[in-house]
Amino acid sequence: MNDQTLPFEFNKQMNQELRNAYLYFAMASYFDELSLKGFANYFKVQAREELGHAIKFYEFIIDRGWKIEIQDIPRPKSSWGSILEVVEDFLAAEVENTKRIWRLVDLARESGDKAAESFLQWFVNEQVEEEKNANELLAMLKLTKEHPSAILALDRVLAERK
What we know:
This protein is mainly alpha-helical. The chain contains 5 helices and no strands.
């Protein structure tokens, strides 16, 4: 591993956090179009969290004296066949993000970068919560069997997320 591996990979992760925010805004938009404002709120809150994660990476990169490398953010998926499909994609995005964080932890250990490893511990813990939340939402949605009154009740619950 060369001296630029960690800075490069941290920049990639910052970009990944922005990509997830972009995806979650697309999901929110899908729900806004369906007039499911609670679901839309849930994903807007999630998108804001991802932006906060990107900022954490940005600040760490700057604090380390590494160069910020802004990358393109690909256009996210913007239409889904069902509410269930959206939530399954949400869980898949979080599972993928967990794998990426774990890979960064491994790289930090391999390079002996204690500061990077310490910084990443917050994200390791955060991903446990992120996957738990996505799994719980998926489980609740499956319980509704997409029955309209149950979806509307779940929508009211999701509207309360801050």
